[in-house]
Amino acid sequence: xxxxxxxxxxxxxxxxxxxxxxxxxxxxxxxxxxxxxxxxxxxxxxxxxxxxxxxxxxxxxxxxxxxxxxxxxxxxxxxxxxxxxxxxxxxxxxxxxxxxxxxxxxxxxxxxxxxxxxxxxxxxxxxxxxxxxxxxxxxxxxxxxxxxxxxxxxxxxxxxxxxxxxxxxxxxxxxxxxxxxxxxxxxxxxxxxxxxxxxxxxxxxxxxxxxxxxxxxxxxxxxxxxxxxxxxxxxxxxxxxxxxxxxxxxxxxxxxxxxxxxxxxxxxxxxxxxxxxxxxxxxxxxxxxxxxxxxxxxxxxxxxxxxxxxxxxxxxxxxxxxxxxxxxxxxxxxxxxxxxxxxxxxxxxxxxxxxxxxxxxx
Length: 362
Description:
Strand order of the largest sheet: 2-1-3-4-5-11-10
Distance between the termini: 86 Å
Helix content: 40-55%
Radius of gyration: 24 Å
Order of helices and strands: HEHEHEHEEHEHEHEHHEHEEEHHH
C-alpha cells in the first residue's frame, strides 16, 4: 500500500469518526445543525380525565409540529395524573434522544428535578399550560389569575341581590397545579367581602369524583337552603358538583372552565352558569412553534415570548400569556362554535334541542 493510499484511508477514517461523534452527541447539543426532518420532540401531558388533552391539545400540538417540521418525530406520553409516572416518562424521553420536551406538569414542584435533568442533558423544556419549576426555557398559557377574576365576576353577576342572602362553596382545583392557585387568587380578589364562603376545598388531581363528594359534604354541613352559589375552578369539577346539587334538589349559579362539551350542554340546560374558554389552538400552536425552533437550534421569536414570568422555584421564564373568554348561554355560537371546538350538531343533541332553539343556537 502506498503512503498516499494510507493517508487517504486515514483521512476517511477520521472523517467517519468525526461524523459518529456528532451523531451520538445529540443529547448534549440537541439543536445544533438540525434540519426540519431531524426534529425530535417529547410531548408530556398530565391526564386524560379532562377531555381537552386528548381531544384538543395533543392533536393540535402534533399537527402544528408536523406543519412546521414535516419529518419530525413526536414521542407522546400521558401521565394519568401521576407525578411519579411523569418523572419516569421524562427519563424515557431523554433516553430516546428527544431534543425538546413540551411539558404540562402533573405536579409543578416535584417535576423540578426532571426539568433540571433535562437541562443537564442539553434538552430544552417548554412548559405548557402549567409553569413547571426548574430551568424551563419557555412557557405558554393563559392569564390564569384573569381566569379566576372572570369566574368570580360571573358568579357575582349571577347571584345579583342574593349574594348576601346565603353562602357559597368554593372548589379550587388541585393543590399541585400552580394554575389552580392563580385561579383561586383571582376569584378571591373579586369575591372576598361580597359573599360569605361557607366551605372551600382544594380538589386533588382535579378529580370530579372528589368534587362530588366535597359538594355532598358541604350540602350536608351547611344545609341546602343556605347555599346560593358554587365556584368551580373547571368543568370537570363542575360535572361532579352538578351531580351532587341535582341529587339534593339544588339549582344555583355554578362556574367552570375549559369549555368542555358537557359544560356547554349544562349551560344550555341551566345547571351551569358559565365556563371560561381558553382557545386551545393558539396555545398549542405557540408551544409547537417554540419547541420546533428550539429543536432546530434557533432562538424563539420574540413575538412568541413577549413577557416574562417567575416560576415557583424563582426562575425568570420567557412567556406568552393568552386571553381567556367567558362563555354563557348567549354567546355559545360566537365562542366555542366559531372557534371550531364543537359544531352545533355536537352540542344540540336531542336532549338539548329545545334549549338550543330558545337560545337561537339552532
